[in-house]
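pls ignore typos typing on phone
adenosine monophosphate + seq
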Amino acid sequence: MRVLVVGAGGREHALCWALKRDTPDATLFAAPGNPGTAQLGTNLAIPATAQDDLVRAVREHKIDFTIVGPEAPIAAGLGDTLRRAGQPVFGPDAAAARIESSKAFAKELMRRAKIPTASSRTFTSLEPALAFITRHAEPLVVKASGLAAGKGVVVCARRTEAARAARAMLADGAFGDAGREIVVEDFLKGEELSVLSLTDGERLLLLPAAQDHKRLREGDTGPNTGGMGAYCPVTIATPGLLERIRREVLEPAIAALAEQRTPFQGVLYAGLMLASDGTLSVLEFNCRFGDPEAQALLPVLPGMTRHLADIAAGSFTPGERTLAPTRAAVATVLAAPGYPDKPELGATIIVPRDLEPGTLVFHAGTTRDADGTLRVHGGRVLTVTGLGDTVSEAAKRSSDACELITFPGKTYRRDIAWRATREERAGAARG
Ligand code: AMP
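k done
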């Protein structure tokens, strides 16, 4: 089996790692990849957005199927281009990916399909947006509709703040084209939960729920980032709740996309809020694996990549409704100093060779010099996944390895999975 993974982050390294685990004799290519994917296969120096070059590479290297990791090439139509060229691909067409690339589209789809979500209005000009904000209850949320690398959401305690955010997006071009349309919505309280599913546009296979930590600092404080860590399993995600999420959110979403003749094939990811009274609401949809959710989920789902190949080939027949994790996993992101605003690049990274068994180090923003020196090359540098029989054990393994890996200004959170570890401690105390 010859597989191309498009992308260069920790998610793509984890995908390559999982492909090798499940199919040891697979031949892997990554475009453009990173020093981690280079250890498992061949990196092709082709940007994820160079569609024609990627089609040529797929033909030249006789790739059986391509997995598109990040949202940007999916939204730009790489799935469409490869499928048009007769090449099997795992990942949706651009039209279906609008469920992520346009929050305004997603909101309209949810309204039509009666999928629970915060009440909202969409605006493309400032005056009506400001007028709406003036009448809106506090707190409230302002979102750039387009892709903004997880940074286009502003949770506002006050209307004045919301007005500032709306002005920055609609009048000052703060997020470029992504902010030319905005969604203003009700603030929701509760516990967040991510549920990823694999789908061929018709059938659905749910992965175990994960929780991610978007804020930079411990205690879920500080600015929003692309993600500082993730873990699974999640205590609140009972089989009953997962079944509800399937029926109330994921099935209606794929049905609505199929109905408008843009069937969704790939990972459909629902970011959800569960209120204390049990009310469930969708915060957002993503059209791909999360990063760092993938680095927590893939290691505890042996055999999972078989489904990606089947979906790409059009022969997806999942036996089960939900995949269960074999262990607990905690993925911690090591970020560069200055992340997310201005990450400092170039520092030398040292990864000890003798990390504890049950520890996985996935590369993201790294580069390797000709002499083998590993250097910081992006905001999120590495993801360190710890595995364990409990979330607490996995979290300790991840934290311990994060301590041992060194580079100047290394920034990470020592409290990834704090909800689950707190509950495990309380459970142990109760006996
Ligand atoms: P999104 O990209 O839409 O998932 O938003 C990023 C983060 O902003 C979410 O993970 C939440 O923490 C927060 N958020 C988004 N929408 C809301 C909302 N309506 N109420 C409260 N928090 C929200």
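The chain has 14 helices and 21 strands. The pocket of adenosine monophosphate is lined by residues 118, 141, 143, 150, 153, 155, 185-188, 192, 214, 271, 283-284 (CB under 6 Å). more later
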